[in-house]
Design goal:
With 371 residues, the protein is an alpha/beta fold. The chain has helices at 4-15, 34-45, 71-77, 94-103, 112-123, 132-137, 139-148, 152-165, 207-213, 230-240, 285-288, 305-310, 313-319, 333-344; strands at residues 27-30, 50-54, 62-63, 66-69, 82-85, 195-201, 219-226, 247-250, 253-255, 259-265, 271-273, 278-284, 296-299, 322-326, 348-354, 362-368. It has 14 helices and 16 strands.
Length: 371
């Protein structure tokens, strides 16, 4: 794939008609979960009349003082309802959600990226969501990233990921790579047949480490599992400590230097570094493991991936580990993180794979070339 695919995508994005909320019509939010409620509050603050929420099978009758109805009830109340999609997660593909609305007889809802274009400042950080004009402005830079990737699947994945986030490839929301996440035909060959040391930044409850131990031909002699969220760390220790003696669980955040960070605890897997009431120590990987061999590093650190890579420069140069780096926490990650890894990793091969719906869990793999 050449630069032409990304330039054509830029032309399509510029020519596309931009849908916006009709301020003269009330809005119904499709989905009454966390993101839907945030969208409702943001639209109300802008003076938009939000009259309720719709769910296929309502879990509650009302929220924020507004009704939560099913599709037949909405058809009776407002058969021409102006819908905004209030579901933004890795669980249900957006194309399936749009199909639910259209099969119920309604026009396709405005999508998360269309709302973000209008309400970016108020919505704030929402993983990969960003203003589409910024993505369009970086498509040529993304084409240069694509040219450095090692296979056609990676280049096609990056192109379609961009098209999806621009609203030009809704079917990509359902696309998943055939390769398993983290441990697959790209990453396992350099790790097999030797005793390895791994580092998991954003270890959650130890799920990735446990999956590593299940891989045939892998012998893990030592693992450093970093998890700053107190609740997740408690689960990590309960699941791993005492059962796997090679694992060292650390209640730390990885960063580019030693310090104390604040963060707001997320729900389940996520916690966002920044404003929050939880304080946690952070350190660079070069400080945590200053000597010895490290063979595999996984980074899923809620947007701090670039900082962690900066703090692992000496380790990467010394050890040449396999790296698996999340690409979906910030809008600019899809070009900034590959460019950073290109500068840090000499004689490596780089791949992009998609492991969850809606472009969540996109991962950049950096594999040392020993041939």
């Amino acid at each position: 794939m050449s630069i032409d695919g990304f330039l054509r995508l830029r032309e399509q994005a510029v020519a596309r008609t931009v849908r916006r909320i009709d301020p003269g019509r009330p809005v119904w939010i499709f989905g009454a979960g966390n993101f839907g409620q945030v969208v409702a509050r943001v639209l109300q603050a802008r003076g938009t009349a939000v009259v309720g929420f719709v769910e296929t099978i309502p879990r509650i009758r009302e929220t924020q003082g507004l009704p939560v109805v099913d599709w037949p009830a909405l058809a009776r109340i407002d058969s021409k309802a102006q819908l905004v999609l209030g579901i933004f997660n890795r669980a249900t593909p957006h194309d399936q959600l749009v199909a639910i609305a259209t099969q119920a007889g309604f026009a396709p809802p405005l999508m998360a990226w269309e709302i973000y274009d209008q309400c970016a400042a108020a919505l704030g950080w929402q993983f990969w969501l960003g203003e589409r004009s910024v993505l369009v402005a970086h498509l040529e830079r993304l084409a240069q990233v694509a040219e450095r990737l090692a296979d056609d699947e990676s280049r096609q994945t990056l192109l379609r990921l961009c098209a999806f986030r621009l609203g030009l490839d809704l079917e990509y929301s359902s696309f998943l790579s055939a390769d398993p996440q983290y441990f697959n035909a790209l990453t396992l060959p350099p790790l097999q047949g030797k005793a390895i040391t791994c580092i998991d930044c954003g270890a959650y409850d130890g799920d990735t480490f446990i999956e590593l131990l299940r891989q045939p031909g892998i012998h893990c002699k030592q693992a450093f599992l970093l998890e700053p969220d107190p609740d997740n760390y408690a689960r990590l220790v309960q699941r791993v400590a005492g059962q796997h003696t090679q694992a060292v669980c650390l209640p730390l955040a990885a960063a580019d230097r030693y310090g104390v960070l604040s963060f707001a605890s997320g729900q389940g897997e996520g916690c966002a570094i920044g404003e929050g009431d939880i304080r946690v120590a952070a350190a660079a990987l070069d400080q945590i493991v200053p000597q010895g061999q490290v063979d595999f590093i996984k980074l899923d650190v809620e947007g701090a991936e670039a900082l962690v890579l900066q703090g692992a420069r000496r380790m990467i140069e010394r050890c040449r580990p396999v790296l698996a780096v999340s690409l979906y926490h910030n809008p600019s990650d899809i070009w900034e993180l590959p460019e950073l890894l290109f500068s840090l990793c000499r004689d490596y091969r780089f791949y992009v794979r998609q492991h969850c719906c809606n472009s969540f869990d996109s991962v950049l793999y950096a594999v040392p070339d020993f041939e």
